[in-house]
């Protein structure tokens, strides 16, 4: 863990204004050294008889973005952020916060405790605590409603959305916006309010509490409807705002403190905080010690189907110049139509203005000429998932691309090392496995094979980050065709589900059990959405594992033409234009006949059995990938499952869940199931090792 600098706060003086400057890179998090530094500087500044006013400012790219989240699991150290905010608010001389970059969470709370706030025009403000399963715990739930009213305060705290300085001043969150030098303006402003007494507007500002009770009650109902009664932080935020309306500040602060402590101790917050750090850890690649990402401006994408078009949109949204290469005129037109339709929908839904939609398209060139590839810094091959086609295309790309260009293939399952070899320049080849819809999904697996250069890997990693997505490194050795991290685990997940389907469960029961665990969709809903024919083609193209049980139900469905949503029939039947289906009785009949043919007497599975088996399969597959070195850290697997497959984020991912159960209990549950299907339930060596050593997956995260 990085240590905070020893003296992260400085006290300066500009005439009669004391300037407290925070400098705690990279984001000025308010760790204990910063809090102590601010408190000491403030006391000294106020005690000085030459001080008429105080400015709190920060160096670097941003005002503090919040409490130091890493300290949440440690013993509390004084002053707490809440105590510091009270100290600021009670200061006998006016305190002005000067905000640049983003003032988030505790950073904004600190600014709200100051008597005045001035912000750079580009500054943004928000209270994102809800994304960590907590609430603003340094007085923010009490000060914000007093500053901007309870309704807007609830909006900000329940969504975690940021507001720009222009809107913030209209709301009353800040007092002044400036386009000039922030520090100079803040000092001048402090001078102008130096004589103002009393200093604190927050405490004296009264809210018509009773008048707002109906809208608070409505918000509580909305939270219950949308998130359920168990979503702790959102309900506690509403409680705190209610307290702000009905109780004096001091009592409100006590309500907030107790609510904050409940939230921070919750499993939900533990999971969300783990997710936050896991995503950042995943983006750290070992190749960073050897190479830095090269500059990428021009991106070429070969193949304009659903995936290629989605990648093109993602790249356009992030400001890249994009060339999309398709076959023939019809291919070009189809891709143009697909991308154009996306922008039309975005404009119709108000996500983009017409001008923004049109402007994005000016950075897109569609062509059927491969020789345009010579201009690109990075090329993504996204044609059909067929080894021979991809190998031939990569050879052509390899011959045309600039010597310093990086070439990525979007293969899901094919042998990356063999494709790299076929390109004629394996060092320049990496895998970039996007998840559909690529313009939305935040996950990209970066496939790294033995011959890939550190430079190519880092350039690909940098590109993914520049897309605003999370790169997760998947190390694949020659011959590995099981689909990086995500799809390998998905296979085990589906296999566990299919066995239960064959043995007595129904698709709707399995889907329901997984939804009640927290997945948005169950495995058979996902299968209907992605199209049964795609998985069928993959099964047909690879040799069967003679030691694994094979469940033919999905194959039989494809033979009947039941392909899922695209044919309106799959595990569910879909009415025209509907994405929500009703169970397909014909599939239930097919399954019953199938069981009879195989001599299987159906047995009952409880929802709990279903969840347990599927989670065991996921964790065991994850542990296998760790053993094979495909995944570097358990937390990388958590990230893939949360971002790529909708594993509930508040649980922090399957490996974190496994730690809560403990690897030794998981290993003993697997040993009970093993005789049923050794290929699936035989414990992975890493899991056995952790069980024997009484260790947890988290112990492997540091590596
Ligand atoms: N505490 C500790 N570390 C933090 C942090 C925080 N609040 N916010 C960011 N960091 C760290 C990141 O872990 C990362 O560290 P590494 O380089 O070691 O990985 C580094 O700062 C840079 O962060 P990002 O990679 O995320 O940089 P970015 O430019 O993409 O994003 C950001 C910057 C928007 C501020 C983003 O980091 C972010 O959203 N941070 C969290 C903000 C937040 O949730 N604040 C509320 C905290 S809770 C609170 O304040 C409660 C309270 O009331 C007491």
From TrEMBL:
One of its GO terms (molecular function) is (3S)-3-hydroxyacyl-CoA dehydrogenase (NAD+) activity. Signal peptide: none annotated. GO terms for biological process: fatty acid beta-oxidation. Monomer. It is found in: Peroxisome. It comes from Litoreibacter halocynthiae. Residues 299-474 form the 3-hydroxyacyl-CoA dehydrogenase NAD binding domain. Keywords: Fatty acid metabolism, Isomerase, Lipid degradation, Lipid metabolism, Lyase, Multifunctional enzyme, NAD, Oxidoreductase, Peroxisome. This is Short chain enoyl-CoA hydratase /3-hydroxyacyl-CoA dehydrogenase. The keyword DNA-binding does not apply. InterPro entries: 3-OHacyl-CoA_DH_NAD-bd, 3HC_DH_C, 6-PGluconate_DH-like_C_sf, ClpP/crotonase-like_dom_sf, Enoyl-CoA_hyd/isom_CS, Enoyl-CoA_hydra/iso, NAD(P)-bd_dom_sf. PANTHER family: 3-HYDROXYACYL-COA DEHYROGENASE, PEROXISOMAL BIFUNCTIONAL ENZYME. It catalyses: a (3S)-3-hydroxyacyl-CoA + NAD(+) = a 3-oxoacyl-CoA + NADH + H(+). Residues 483-574, 612-666 form the 3-hydroxyacyl-CoA dehydrogenase C-terminal domain. Pathway: Lipid metabolism; fatty acid beta-oxidation.
């Amino acid at each position: 863990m990085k240590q905070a600098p020893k003296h992260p706060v400085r006290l300066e003086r500009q005439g009669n204004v004391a300037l407290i400057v925070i400098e705690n890179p990279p984001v000025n998090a308010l760790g204990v050294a910063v809090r102590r530094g601010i408190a000491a500087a403030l006391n000294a500044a106020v005690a000085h008889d030459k001080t008429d006013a105080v400015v709190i400012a920060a160096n670097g790219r941003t005002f503090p973005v919040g409490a130091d989240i890493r300290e949440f699991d440690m013993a509390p150290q004084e002053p707490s952020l809440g105590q510091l905010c009270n100290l600021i608010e009670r200061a006998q001389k006016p305190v002005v916060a000067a905000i640049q970059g983003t003032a988030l969470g505790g950073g904004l709370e600190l600014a709200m405790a100051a008597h005045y706030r001035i912000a750079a025009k580009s500054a943004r403000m928000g209270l994102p605590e809800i994304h960590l399963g907590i609430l603003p715990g340094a007085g923010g739930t009490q000060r914000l409603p007093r500053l901007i009213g309870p309704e807007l305060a609830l909006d900000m705290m329940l969504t975690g959305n940021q507001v720009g300085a222009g809107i913030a001043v209209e709301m009353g969150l800040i007092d002044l916006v400036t386009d000039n030098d922030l520090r100079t303006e803040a000092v001048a402003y402090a001078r102008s309010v130096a004589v103002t007494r009393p200093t604190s507007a927050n405490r004296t500002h009264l809210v018509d509490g009773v008048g707002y009770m109906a809208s608070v009650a409505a918000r509580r109902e909305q939270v219950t409807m949308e998130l359920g009664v168990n979503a702790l932080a959102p309900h506690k935020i509403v409680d705190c705002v209610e307290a702000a309306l009905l109780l004096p500040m001091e009592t409100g602060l006590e309500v907030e403190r107790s609510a904050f402590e409940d939230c921070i101790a919750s499993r939900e917050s533990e999971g969300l905080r783990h997710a936050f750090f896991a995503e950042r850890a995943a983006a750290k690649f070992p190749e960073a010690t050897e190479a830095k990402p090269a500059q990428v401006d021009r991106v070429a994408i070969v193949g304009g189907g659903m995936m290629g078009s989605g990648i093109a949109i993602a790249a356009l949204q992030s400001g890249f110049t994009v060339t999309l290469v398709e076959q023939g005129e019809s291919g070009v037109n189809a891709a143009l139509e697909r991308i154009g339709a996306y922008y039309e929908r975005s404009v119709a839904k108000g996500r983009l203005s017409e001008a923004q939609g049109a402007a994005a398209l000016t950075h897109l060139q569609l062509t059927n000429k491969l020789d345009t590839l010579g201009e690109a810094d990075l090329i993504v091959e996204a044609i059909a998932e067929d080894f021979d086609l991809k190998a031939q295309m990569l050879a052509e790309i390899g011959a045309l691309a600039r010597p310093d260009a990086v070439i990525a293939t979007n293969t899901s399952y094919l042998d990356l090392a063999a494709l790299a070899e076929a390109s004629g320049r394996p060092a320049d080849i990496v895998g970039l496995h996007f998840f559909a819809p690529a313009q939305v999904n935040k996950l990209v697996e970066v496939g790294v094979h033995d011959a890939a250069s550190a430079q190519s890997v880092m350039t690909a990693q940098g590109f993914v980050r520049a897309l605003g997505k999370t790169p997760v490194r998947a190390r694949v050795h020659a011959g590995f065709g099981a689909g990086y991290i995500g799809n390998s685990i998905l296979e085990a997940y589906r296999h566990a589900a299919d066995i239960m389907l064959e043995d007595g469960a129904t698709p709707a029961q399995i889907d329901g059990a997984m939804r009640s665990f927290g997945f948005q969709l169950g495995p058979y809903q996902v299968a209907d959405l992605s199209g049964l024919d795609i998985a069928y083609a993959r099964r047909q193209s690879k040799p069967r594992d003679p030691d694994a049980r094979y469940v033919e139900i999905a194959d039989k469905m494809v033979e009947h033409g039941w392909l899922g949503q695209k044919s309106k029939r799959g595990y569910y039947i879909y009415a025209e234009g509907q994405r929500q289906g009703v169970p397909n009785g014909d599939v239930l009949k097919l399954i019953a006949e199938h069981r009879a043919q195989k001599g299987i007497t159906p047995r009952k599975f409880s929802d709990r059995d279903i969840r347990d088996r599927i989670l065991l399969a996921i964790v065991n597959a994850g542990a296998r990938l760790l053993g094979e070195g495909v995944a570097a850290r358990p937390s990388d697997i958590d990230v893939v499952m949360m971002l790529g497959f909708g594993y509930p984020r508040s649980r922090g991912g399957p490996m974190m869940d496994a730690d809560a159960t403990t690897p030794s209990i998981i290993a003993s549950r697997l040993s009970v199931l093993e005789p049923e299907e050794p290929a699936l339930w035989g414990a992975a060596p890493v899991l056995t090792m952790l069980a024997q050593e009484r260790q947890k997956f988290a112990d492997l995260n540091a590596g």
